[in-house]
Amino acid sequence: MIFLLSILIQMIPLPPAVLKFLSPQTVALRDILGDGGGWNTLSLIPPKTLSQFLRWTTVFLFYLFIVNVFTKETVWKLLNTLFFLTCFEIFYGLFLLFTGSNYLLWYNKPEYGQFGNRLHGTYRNPDHIAGYLEMLIPLHIVQAISRRVITPFKSEEKAQRLLGIFLVMLFIIALFLTISRAGIVAFLIGMIYFYFSGVKGTERRTQFSFYLKILGALAVVYLLWIGIGPIIDRFWSLTSSVQHHRGVVWNDTMKLVKDFPVFGVGFGTFRYIFPKYKTLLTQGIWDFPHNDYLQVLAEGGVVSLVSFLWLFFNALRMLTWKKLPLARGAAAGFVAILIHSFFDFNLQIPANAYIFVTLIAIGWISVRENHGRHPLPPIAGD
Questions:
Q1: Distance, C-alpha 28 to centroid of its chain
Q2: Which pTM does this prediction carry?
C-alpha cells in the first residue's frame, strides 16, 4: 500500500513553494518547458503516472483476489493452470524456434527475427520468458515431486511423477534456450536456495534431493547433447554489454537520480526524460534502464524505492518463515526474479508482474493454512 501511495502522491497538484521545496529540478524543468508558475505535480507527465498507478493497483488487487479466494486445497488448481500455461509457452516457443516463424499465433511479428536462435514463446523478448520460467519452475518441481496422485496403483503414481519430472526438465532446457544470461544465473541461484532450504535429515528432504538430482542430470545430459556453444558465446559477450550499453545507461540514469532524488520524475516517464541525460551514441530509445530497482529510483525517488524494497523484504520473510514445499518453491522463484531484476525490467512486463504476486500469494496461502493465527498478508499490510 505504501508503494501505491508513493505513486499517488506524484499526481497531487502542489503549490509552487511546496513543489520547489520537494523537488527543485521539477520546477526548473517545468519553467524551461513553459509549464511553471502555478500548482503542479511532482510527476512531469501525470497521465503516464496515472497509467502506472492503475497498472500496479490492478496487480495488487489480483494478489488480494488470490489470497482471499484460494485455500491450500484449491490452490493446486491454480498451480495446475500455471503448469498448463507453461507447457503452452514452452511447446509453442520450441515450435517458433525450430521453424523460424515470425508469427505469434496469427499475428506477424517481424521483430522476432532479431533474436536469432533464442526461445521467446509469446513474449517479445527472450529475457522476459526467462523471467517467467525462473519464477515458476521451482513451483513446478514441487508439483511434480510432492503432489500425490489419487490412484490405487503405486506404479501409476510413479509414472505420473516421472512424466512431471520430464516436463519440468523441458522447462529448464527451454530456459537455457532463451540464452538469457541474467535469467540463467538467477535461476541457478534460486535452485541452489531451493535445494538447501529444506528441513535437513527428513524423509521428505531425502526424496526431494533424489528427484532433484535426477532432474538436474537429465537436463545437463540433454543440454550437452543439443550443444551449449551459443550459451557460452553469449556469456563471453557479457563484459562488452555492460561496459558499452547497460553500464552507460545505468550511469546516465544515476545522473537523472541526482537531479530528482526524493520523489523521482514520475512513474511511466523515464523514456521521455532520459534523452536529456543520455550519452550513449545510438539512435535507440530506452524505455527502461534494464534494472527494475534503478527504474523505481529514477521514476519514484528514494521514497518509492524504500517502500518497494520493504515490500520485498516482508514477502521474502514470510516465504522463508516455514520450510514448506510450496513456500520453498515460491521463495526460490522470488529470489531468482529479484536477482534478475538487477539486469532487466521483468517487473515492468504486466504478465510477469502478475506471476510475481501470484508467487507471493501461493506462498502466503501455504504458510497461512499451516499456522494457527491469520496475520494480515505481507503486501496488504505494507
A1: 35
A2: 0.86
